[in-house]
Specification:
It contains 6 helices and 8 strands, in the order E-H-E-H-E-H-E-E-E-H-E-E-H-H. With about 190 residues, the protein is of the alpha+beta class. It is globular and about 40 Å long. It starts with 18 loop residues before the first strand and ends in a 7-residue tail after the last helix.
Length: about 190
């Protein structure tokens, strides 16, 4: 196990014409389901990021000892959807004011986090966070971590496309579906047809 000061680095390949942002907003089943529905989002991959354990398993993530957050990698076409809109959806579809918690999911693996892939993304995310706090959009200050990307480990296959494959399960009905419904209500102009 490596210590936090020596985060393992991983590389990701970004197809030509696409951009990539890595987002943590609680359980990745929820976040994946939301972003898969946005026009301009080409691919969403669930995984683990920001920690100090290489190739963690879901069981290790759930132990809250790896430093990783449950995240999604969002591959998007910047000609069809802006990073600003992606971040607007990100902040609107989870509670960014609770530290290490989303509803009943508690622990650092559920933290609100943006892992940016270049300085421009970092600036945009930091500026939007400051603006939302200044305008007091939420009742409490946003605690979203805005950090340079260091690593990503793809989650086990059964976590990929989870809501679309398991929408009938109680967790999906009571936790994921309300977030998807909120997306449809407030961002209907930006959904895939």
């Amino acid at each position: 196990m490596m210590n936090e000061l020596q985060l393992p680095k991983t590389t990701v390949s970004i197809p030509d014409g696409l951009s990539l942002i890595t987002l943590g907003a609680g359980c990745f089943w929820c976040t994946e389901a939301v972003f898969q529905r946005l026009e301009g989002v080409e691919q969403v991959v669930s995984g683990y990021s920001g920690g100090f354990v290489e190739n963690p398993t879901y069981r290790e993530i759930c132990s809250a000892t790896t430093g990783h957050a449950e995240v999604i990698q969002v591959y998007f076409d910047p000609k069809k959807i802006s990073l600003e809109l992606i971040l607007e959806v990100f902040w609107a579809t989870h509670d960014p004011t609770t530290l290490n918690r989303q509803g009943a999911d508690v622990g650092p693996q559920y933290r609100s986090a943006i892992f940016f892939h270049d300085e421009e993304q970092g600036r945009i995310a930091s500026d939007l966070k400051a603006k939302l706090n200044q305008e007091q959009v939420f009742d409490n200050p946003i605690v979203t971590e805005v950090t340079a990307f260091t690593n990503f480990y793809k989650a086990e296959n059964y976590h990929q496309d989870y809501y679309n494959q398991n929408g009938y399960q109680p967790y999906c009905q009571f936790v994921v579906k309300p977030k998807v419904d909120k997306l449809k209500k407030f961002f209907s102009d930006h959904l895939k047809s």
